[in-house]
Design brief:
With 584 residues, this protein is mostly helical. The chain contains 24 helices and no strands.
């Protein structure tokens, strides 16, 4: 690998970093109020909001993790998730967005204060702060894999295959620090407008990088031929299911899946209950997609401030709805391309095993760093960083907004100036950046200890444990008029969290990381293996249904109903301030 080629790649990455920070600072200038910092004055074009949604949800976990799913499953079945994604967002578009715009909320948790009371708002807001910090922290670890591998190439001219593992956590730590600091600068100073407009650039770069990688792989597996059909033919010969329906859609009842389930559970006959268990433990099937992914996306885009905040920057709920649904449709080709990259990588490594890394998490990174020519390699690495910074900047802004709007202003700074509120939001941006660095480093350590740990289930699972119960509360408020109360919601959410944690086996995972040698750890793991441990795709369903059913037992107090009616009248009269700034 030539020194001049490495210099070209490094210059491309440096230009990207400098350019993205400059654009972010320019677009986010003159942030004088929390209305501007958090909502961009509600003047952002719908198409920019759409691009920002794509950039936020397409993190480095997608860029590097989805190809791993395609590589392992040898199919595009992960792209099935988009079916549930579209259904879930359509429900959000027609059920959630209008009330948010009607009450002119700064965070979606303001709605819970209006519908139920401050306890519900504070509990769910706190859950969001914990969930988003954990989920974004784990996502932040993913690009550090490529950064560390790239650093070994740039400094030691060592290839990925020769340098198989990193035994120290410190290289990952410094990689995370650099990426987080650069993102923090333009996010803290520029607010949501900086986030959205840099996301437009990053989404474009991300999609372009995926297309380039696809054509490069087809070129290489097709015998270095510019006729890409040669590549598709080579893929069809190496992976026969790609010429069949099973390469694109999985019902979960395929013969191989059923046989594996029976062997794992030591059963000879599949009863109705066993088939039901098979549905619950399977990741990417039509059942988990049409039910599980639909609920998960309702939770993410209806209750997660990280995702909803950019939707609140559009001028009207109709334009916001257009952004949300268009982004969902665009996800189909994006997810399909990243899954296809994984299948193509499998074929490439069959042909060129000398480039194949030991850890499957590095399959795309190895190809980018070892095979791609200079220039293109730099663009691909910039694409990895773009996906990271796009999702990270959105998370930092949403966390800072929620901490400021839901906690700091109501309890410590209600009478302070708008300038002070913006300064507080910038301070909280830094606080959450530090917390995410710590979480990403901890996850790096866990990955070193357990190399078989899969990225996508962890990233989606962390959010799913909490998003489901959050969704249950919002559904209770929007689908009923007189059910649910502050105290009842506290009980319902707690029960929903416990049910989700136990059914998902989170308590076992934590014990295995903290105390792998304890007898209680082995006993719990054995019990969980014998009973139903639901796939991360079902966490949202379990949590939402549990909270909704328990919450239905509690009736909304008369005073809460009266407060909701009064707030609706104030909102319809044109009031544009959040409730806590009106002296309520």
């Amino acid at each position: 690998m030539s020194t001049s080629g490495l210099i070209i790649d490094a210059l491309i990455i440096i230009i990207y970093f400098v350019g993205i920070v400059a654009i972010g600072l320019y677009m986010g200038r003159r942030e004088n109020s929390l209305h501007d910092f958090a909502l961009g004055g509600r003047r952002v074009p719908w198409w920019a909001v759409m691009a920002s949604i794509i950039a936020a949800e397409t993190s480095a976990a997608t860029f590097l993790g989805v190809p791993v799913e395609g590589y392992k499953t040898l199919s595009l079945s992960y792209a099935q998730v988009v079916l549930g994604l579209i259904l879930g967002r359509m429900l959000v578009a027609w059920v959630f967005l209008k009330p948010y715009y009607r009450f002119k909320v700064y965070t979606v948790y303001d709605y819970l204060a209006i519908r139920f009371g401050e306890k519900s708002k504070n509990y769910v807001s706190l859950l969001f702060l914990v969930m988003r910090t954990l989920a974004s922290g784990t996502r932040l670890f993913v690009p550090s894999l490529v950064v560390v591998l790239a650093w070994k190439i740039f400094t030691e001219h060592q290839d990925v295959v020769a340098y198989q593992t990193v035994e120290s956590v410190w290289p990952y730590f410094w990689a995370v620090v650099v990426l987080t600091f650069i993102t923090f600068v333009y996010t803290a100073l520029g607010g949501i407008k900086a986030v959205i407009w840099t996301d437009v650039i990053q989404a474009t770069l991300m999609f372009t990088s995926a297309v380039v990688a696809t054509f490069m792989l087809l070129y290489h597996i097709g015998g270095d031929s510019l006729n890409i059909m040669n590549g598709f033919r080579a893929m069809g010969e190496a992976v026969p299911q790609m010429t069949e329906l099973s390469g694109y859609i999985r019902t979960g009842f395929e013969e191989k899946a059923v046989a594996g389930f029976m062997e794992k559970n030591n059963i000879s006959v599949m009863t109705t209950w066993e088939y039901f268990k098979l549905i619950l433990v399977s990741d990417y099937t039509l059942f988990s997609v049409l039910i599980g992914a639909t609920m998960s996306n309702m939770a993410a885009f209806g209750t997660d401030q990280d995702m909803v905040q950019r939707l609140l920057t559009a001028e009207t709920y109709q334009k916001s709805r257009r952004s949300l649904i268009t982004a969902a449709i665009m996800d189909l080709p994006i997810f399909a391309i990243f899954s296809l990259i994984g299948v193509l990588l499998y074929v490439f490594y069959l042909q060129r095993p000398e480039f194949k890394p030991v850890d499957s998490a590095d399959v795309f990174g190895s190809y980018i760093l070892n095979v791609m020519p200079s220039g293109l390699r730099g663009i691909m690495l910039a694409g990895v960083f773009a996906t990271t910074m796009g999702s990270l900047s959105a998370a930092l802004n949403a966390l800072a907004t929620s901490a400021t709007n839901d906690w700091y202003i109501p309890y410590a700074a209600k009478k302070r100036s708008e300038a002070h509120h913006v300064a507080a939001a910038r301070f909280f941006t830094g606080v959450f950046a530090v917390l995410m660095i710590a979480i990403a480093t901890a996850f790096a350590y866990a990955k070193i200890e357990k190399p078989e740990l899969r990225i996508i289930p962890v990233v989606l699972g962390v959010a799913g444990f909490i998003l489901g119960p959050m969704l249950g509360v919002f559904l209770l408020g929007m689908l009923t008029k007189k059910r649910g109360s502050d105290n009842g919601n506290m009980i319902a959410i707690t029960i929903g969290l416990l049910i989700t944690i136990i059914s998902g086996g989170l308590h076992v995972v934590l014990l295995e990381l903290i105390a792998p040698d304890w007898s209680v750890t082995h006993q719990l793991a054995a019990w969980q293996a014998e009973n139903v441990k639901v796939s991360f795709m079902w966490f949202g369903v379990v949590g939402a249904v549990s909270v909704f059913l328990v919450g239905m037992f509690f009736r909304t107090p008369i005073e809460a109903l009266e407060r909701t009616r009064r707030q609706a009248e104030i909102a319809d009269a044109g009031e544009d301030r959040p409730m806590h700034l009106r002296g309520e």
